[in-house]
Specification:
This protein is of the alpha+beta class. It folds into 3 domains: 56 residues, Orthogonal Bundle (Arc Repressor Mutant, subunit A); 191 residues, 2-Layer Sandwich (BirA Bifunctional Protein, domain 2), CATH 3.30.930.10; 43 residues, SH3 type barrels, CATH 2.30.30. Helix content is 29%, strand content 30%. It contains 8 helices and 14 strands. The protein has a 7-stranded mixed sheet, sandwiched between helices. The protein has a 5-stranded antiparallel sheet with strand order 13-12-11-10-14, with no helix packed on it. The chain has a two-stranded antiparallel ribbon with strand order 1-2. A hairpin with a 2-residue loop joins strand 8 and strand 9. The longest helix is centred in the middle third of the chain and has 19 residues.
Length: 306
C-alpha cells in the first residue's frame, strides 16, 4: 500500500488530497494518513497541508516498493546476519526464480573460504536466487556472468575502470570495490538453485579495515544512489541469465580481466599454488602454468596478484 501511495504522489507531482488517495485505493483516510506517517519515518520528505500531500524528495532506501517491476520478489531487511543465510532458506522453501534478498547491513557477512565480508551502513548487500535450467557443471558460469555484468554496469553508470579478478572480485585501479559469493544446490544432473551474493562498497568507507578497498563515493566524491545501481544491475543480469549469453560468458569475461597473463598465488583449503595465469577453461577454471612448465586447472580459491 505504501508503494501505491508513493506511485500516486510521484505521478501527480503536486498536492494530492487524502480523499483522492483514499478513493483511488479503496482505503480509509485514516489508513492513508498512517501509511504516510510511516513513510515520513522511513525518510520520505512528504509535505502535509490542509490541501493534501506532496512528495518533495525520496531517500535512498531499498524497500520493495522502490522497485515497482520487482516488488513481489524483493525482500528488504534493515539488518541481517547474512543475506546468503536468508536466501538459502527462501530457496529451499520454493521461492521463485530471481527472488532478491537485500540488507541495509550485515553483521555476519560472508566471503570466500569462510572469510568475513564487512558490511557497514551505506554499502549494498544482496543475494539473488536463481533457478537456471542447467547442469551443475555449468553453474560456475553464473558467477562469471554476475561479475562481468556488474563490472559493465559500474563502468556504464559511473565511467570508471572496473575490471574483474578471478574468480569473482571487482577491482578499480587495483582496489577492491565488490566481492561475489555463490552457493549451489542440485538434484541429480540439474541445478535446484544458485544463490549469488554480492557486496558493493558504495557510500561506506571500507579503508579502515581493508586498505586496498575503495567505494564509489570515494571515487566520485558524492553520494551514490544504491537503488538505481541495484535496479540497473538486476535488469542487466536477468537479461543475461534468461538469454543464451551464458554460452559465451567466459570469453566475454576474459576481455575485462586483470588476472590473466600475470604471476599469481592461489590459496585453497588444501594447497597453495603459484604460477602464470594463462587462461580459463570453458567453465571458468583457472589454468596455471607452474614453474616446471606443466599446467594445472584450479576451480576455486583466493587469488593474489604478484
Amino acid at each position: 500500500m505504501k508503494g501505491k501511495i508513493l506511485k500516486i504522489l510521484k505521478a501527480e507531482q503536486g498536492v494530492v488530497s487524502g480523499e483522492a488517495i483514499s478513493s483511488e485505493l479503496g482505503i480509509s483516510r485514516v489508513s492513508v494518513w498512517k501509511h504516510l506517517q510511516k513513510l515520513q519515518e522511513f525518510g520520505y520528505n512528504i509535505d502535509a497541508s490542509p490541501m493534501g500531500y506532496r512528495l518533495i524528495s525520496s531517500p535512498d532506501v531499498l524497500f520493495p516498493w522502490e522497485f515497482p517491476d520487482r516488488e513481489r520478489k524483493i525482500h528488504f531487511f534493515p539488518e541481517v546476519t547474512s543475506t546468503m543465510d536468508i536466501a538459502r532458506d527462501f530457496a529451499r522453501k520454493g521461492c521463485p526464480h530471481f527472488t532478491v534478498v537485500v540488507a541495509g547491513c550485515q553483521n555476519r557477512g560472508r566471503g570466500r573460504l569462510k572469510r568475513t565480508w564487512l558490511s557497514s551502513q551505506g554499502g549494498l548487500y544482496f543475494t539473488t536466487i536463481l533457478r537456471p535450467q542447467i547442469s551443475p557443471v555449468l553453474s560456475l558460469r553464473v558467477n562469471f556472468a554476475a561479475s562481468l555484468i556488474l563490472a559493465q554496469t559500474l563502468n556504464n553508470m559511473f565511467d570508471i575502470n572496473a575490471r574483474v579478478k578471478w574468480p569473482n572480485d571487482i577491482l578499480v585501479d587495483g582496489r577492491k570495490i565488490s566481492g561475489i559469493l555463490s552457493e549451489i544446490e542440485a538434484e541429480a544432473d540439474i541445478v535446484s538453485f544458485i544463490n549469488v551474493g554480492i557486496g558493493i562498497n558504495i557510500n561506506n568507507d571500507p579503508t579502515d579495515s581493508e586498505p586496498k578497498a575503495v567505494s564509489l563515493k570515494q571515487l566520485s566524491g558524492s553520494e551514490i544512489s544504491r537503488k538505481r545501481l541495484l535496479s540497473d544491475f538486476l535488469d542487466n543480469f536477468e537479461k543475461c541469465i534468461n538469454s543464451k549469453a551464458l554460452d559465451n560468458i567466459i570469453q566475454e569475461w576474459k576481455k575485462y580481466t586483470v588476472t590473466l597473463n600475470r604471476y599469481v598465488k592461489i590459496v585453497t583449503h588444501h594447497e597453495v599454488l603459484e604460477g602464470i595465469a594463462v587462461d580459463l577453461d570453458e567453465n571458468g577454471a583457472l589454468i596455471l602454468e607452474l614453474a616446471d612448465g606443466s599446467t594445472k586447472k584450479v576451480l576455486y580459491g583466493d587469488c593474489f596478484h604478484k
